[in-house]
Amino acid sequence: MNFFQRRKQQQYVKHLLHEARHARAMREDVAAPALVAKILHAEQALKEAALMDSSADIERAGELLVDAVTELYPQKSYPRVRENIEILVVALAVAMAFRTFFIQPFKIPTGSMQPTLYGIIVTPQTSRTWLDYFPVNLVPLALFGERFEQVTAKTTGQIGHRYVNEDEALVYEIAGVPHVIRKGLSRYVDLGDYVTKGQIIANGRVKFGDHIFVDKIRYNFFPPKRGNIVVFDTDRIQHPRIRPHSFYIKRLVGLPGEKVAVHPPYLEVNDRKITEPYPFERLLNDRKDGYKGYSLAMSGPGTSALLQNEQDKIEIGMDEFLPFGDNTDFSLDGRYFGPVKIQSMVGPAFLVYWPLSKRWGHVR
């Protein structure tokens, strides 16, 4: 036996003895004493064979030790299934921990940040095309987040009630059963009409809003900056049109200690027009892409707003930030409810991960 063969044999012995000691340490308190004694005997036999430097004796002693250690561990039913389940549980635990402490996904429900980020868009479509049947319809849904949507009557009866829910969708009640119809769908019935079960009430094409990732740890180390697109919770906001326990996404326009006003289309901070960094330059100049600059809050009876005319100003506290939507014509934002506390900030949005579009990728 040459040097390399002897070295390999010694490593084999060392490895078997190490695994045997580990097995005893893990299972000795619950194993039968006779089985533990058998393992100890097999360990001693392997050590003696190694001292004799007999390859045949080492092989026989090694097999006896492996058999004894194997007896120490109980046989499990469906071992492959168990292993896959364990891997899945660990993967889910890691994903949940990552979501809890580092990165959290959000979806954009409305158009308040258009054209930077899009919410749900509904367009009329009177009938299905061949692309709207299963399984072909899975392709545009998976890649581009769009699908044909059809609402049919769940029961037979008269449309006795109609109202708009909190998501601004139209709700028809047929024989007391609610039917939700997204705003923008083509409707074929109205209040008072009699419908039968299975009758088409509305249909159209739905394109789901942008889905983003938010960095939950950044603001623990770096302060928010003007121009950041941020997600914040509404629990500390007092305004009649704000839903509690919700999350909003807007762009930060005002920082602690500043005074903010709107002189359309300009945002003014401490009596200075804001034209940079890049997001604000784009808001003012990229009209072909749909940007219009900033507008004042809508005024009217029952409207609660802080920036309804050019003389109004919002003073921001030292632990506060002021958020506006990029689409201020259709945004419920800081012009109405004022600054947001730093404690309400979830973090900055940094990536659109779905669906595929020209907005996919880094958020600016």
Explained architecture:
This protein is α+β, with helices and mostly antiparallel strands. The chain has seven helices and 20 strands. The protein folds into three domains: 3-72; 121-207, OB fold (Dihydrolipoamide Acetyltransferase, E2P); 211-362, Ribbon (Umud Fragment, subunit A). The protein has helices at residues 3-27, 33-52, 55-72, 79-101, 138-144, 278-285, 334-337, and strands at residues 103-107, 121-124, 146-152, 157-164, 170-174, 177-181, 186-187, 194-195, 200-207, 211-215, 229-233, 247-254, 259-263, 266-269, 272-273, 314-315, 320-324, 340-341, 345-354, 361-362. The strands form four sheets. Strands 1, 10, 11, 12, 17, 18, 19 and 20 form an eight-stranded antiparallel β-sheet that branches. Helix 2 (33-52) runs antiparallel to helix 3. The model has no long low-confidence stretch (mean pLDDT 89).
Offer a concise description of the structure.
This protein has 364 residues and is of the alpha+beta class. The chain has three domains: 3-72; 121-207, OB fold (Dihydrolipoamide Acetyltransferase, E2P) (Beta Barrel), CATH 2.40.50; 211-362, Umud Fragment, subunit A (Ribbon). It has helices at 3-27, 33-52, 55-72, 79-101, 138-144, 278-285, 334-337; strands at residues 103-107, 121-124, 146-152, 157-164, 170-174, 177-181, 186-187, 194-195, 200-207, 211-215, 229-233, 247-254, 259-263, 266-269, 272-273, 314-315, 320-324, 340-341, 345-354, 361-362.
